[in-house]
Write a structure and sequence with these properties.
5 helices, NADH Oxidase, four-stranded antiparallel β-sheet
Length: 174
């Protein structure tokens, strides 16, 4: 599919089949995340890949009730900011860099036929600390978000409405 079709047909998937995501596809997803732009090319991200069912359940619990899709996903990836690599004059760009990486990963997965749902962690302090403690993250690594990945359950409606809103667009002036 072309890039516009990929963007326009992607939707959040919360129910997955038991089919595992291959290591080759996991690497493609990670490569897509790392290919995005970052502030002054700091590449201030880090990724924690989780396939173990028990760890996925703990990861879901650590992120709160809205992270329940992780409990039936074959794969979860925790996106983190790495402050040791962040642009020192504006460290908070790690947040945007992590969001760009997440979007690239989600779009790559969709192109591979793999569903996903983005699950926010930062700036919810409790979620950040729960993920930090669960994975014994060093102080300079900050949890940003979790993405659950898996092949969509067969019963899921993959159609998506058009979300374009003309009244949100302004040209040349407000």
């Amino acid at each position: 599919m072309d890039s516009f079709e990929n963007i326009m047909t992607r939707k959040s998937i919360r129910e997955y089949s038991s089919r595992p995501v291959s290591n080759a596809d996991i690497e493609k997803i990670l490569r897509a995340g790392m290919s995005g732009p970052s502030c002054v090319n700091a590449r201030d991200w880090a990724f924690l890949v989780v396939k173990d069912k028990e760890q996925l359940e703990l990861m879901a619990d650590a992120n709160g009730k809205y992270a329940a899709p992780l409990k039936n996903a074959p794969l979860g990836i925790l996106i983190c900011g790495d402050l040791s690599r962040a642009f020192k004059e504006a460290e908070d760009y790690w947040i945007i860099d992590g969001a760009i990486a997440a979007q690239n990963m989600i779009l790559c997965a969709h192109g591979l036929g793999i569903g996903s749902v983005w699950l926010g962690t930062w700036p919810q302090v409790e979620r950040v600390e729960n993920q930090r403690n669960l994975f014994s993250l060093p102080d300079h690594i900050i949890p940003h978000s979790v993405i659950a990945f898996g092949y969509p359950d067969e019963d899921i409606d993959l159609s998506k409405p058009d979300t374009f809103e003309e009244d949100l667009v302004h040209y040349e002036k407000w």
